[in-house]
Amino acid sequence: MKIAIFGLGYVGLTAAGCLTKQGHDIIGIDVSETKVKDINAGRTPISEPGLDVLIAEAIAAGRLAAFTEVSDRLDDRDIAIVCVGTPSAPDGSHNMAYIAEVTRQIARALGKPREAPLTVVYRSTIRPGTLEELVRPIFASILKTPEAFVELVYNPEFLRESMAIKDFFAPPKIVIGTMDGTPSANMDRMNADLSAPVFYTGFREAEFTKFVDNTFHALKVAFANEIGRVCVDLGISATKVHEIFISDTKLNISPYYLRPGGAFGGSCLPKDVRALQYIATDIGVPVPVIDNVIKSNEVHKHYLFTHAIDGLKPGAKVLMVGLAFKADSDDLRESPNLDLARKLLQAGYKLSIWDDTLEPSKLIGQNLGYGFTHLPAMETLLVSRATAEATTFDRVIDTNGRFGALSPAAASEVVRLDRLP
Questions:
Q1: What is the pLDDT of residues 215-231, one digit of tens each?
Q2: pLDDT for 130-178, tens place per residue?
Q3: pTM of the entire structure?
Q4: Is 18 a catalytic residue?
Q5: Domain boundary among 187, 212, 237
Q6: CB-count burial class (<10 Å; 0-12, 13-18, 19+) for 19
Q7: Residue ranges making up the domain that contains 373
Q8: Which of 18, 83, 231, 268 is catalytic?
Q9: Which CATH number covers residue 359?
């Protein structure tokens, strides 16, 4: 394929080297004359293991050339990949000046009719909505009928510096955002030699992916360092604790606990987080990330309440499915659903609760005490399956995904809280 790459920094130049290795014909566009001169001489202006060899081989084979201006060089290209920087603005937002300028350059270079639209692929990290609200309007203002000239794609990269070449050829995933979420033939051709899960989606989901990944990576680093500080001050081997932690790929390093939905609760997570906070305070080790875990969970509980009652007038009849902190359990200790039930009652809703696992007469010990202390009317609120199915409710709030086990007489709307849409 014939591909143009705008921006020859770490991402763009790595892509250029790797794509030429796959046999593609690449031109690179960058405003830096020094950078362009080095690349055309077979030298790499950045330090990335193995990239110098790829660039030298590509130049020698005639598969790579760099320029400072686009001119008419897009006429024979199948794909244009935008890899320019999106640095932080003073307010923390992304500075979109380079994205806007390159988009204008591409649009102006596409004035001639084409046999097929140029696939313009954005890889820079950009705010969700950028392709719809910034990029496409720029193309539309210059080309009038942009779809006749360009196919817009957002394709985030997942390259780690110092391991970028390995990551390019063995990515953890391939995310491709298109206007309507349908596949792009050019993207499929370009990625044909790569083996990874492929996700086609709309622009916004693809644009947001990089934010989710990078913020979670930052959270992991901060969390690991806080645990490390506590370990050191307690005379514990942080290395050994890390070895044990990452060995658990069933729960610790896995998809579990990462689906947006219900708040956490139960007898372990809240208690152990608070205990770790106490230990850290006791030994004088600041742990700001851990200190805010419980606070974040409380915020999420209230968010779920407002989400559940959105548009519902007080006095409405509500069926809540699930009171225990998770399905197939009768554990009420620190169940966020107790807080939800209490908020619903305080807001004036006529509440009924169906939980197929929960039997108040069988509750014992702390479970019994916590349940009735935080929801004294629990026993009168709980209804049988038969009652739940025979009653007409204005809304059903499904906290644990068990609503499907019911066949209610009528419910104008079902709101799931175990997972967010």
A1: 888 788 888 888 888 88
A2: 999 999 999 999 998 899 999 999 999 998 888 899 999 999 999 999 9
A3: 0.77
A4: no
A5: 212
A6: buried
A7: 300-416
A8: 268
A9: 3.40.50.720
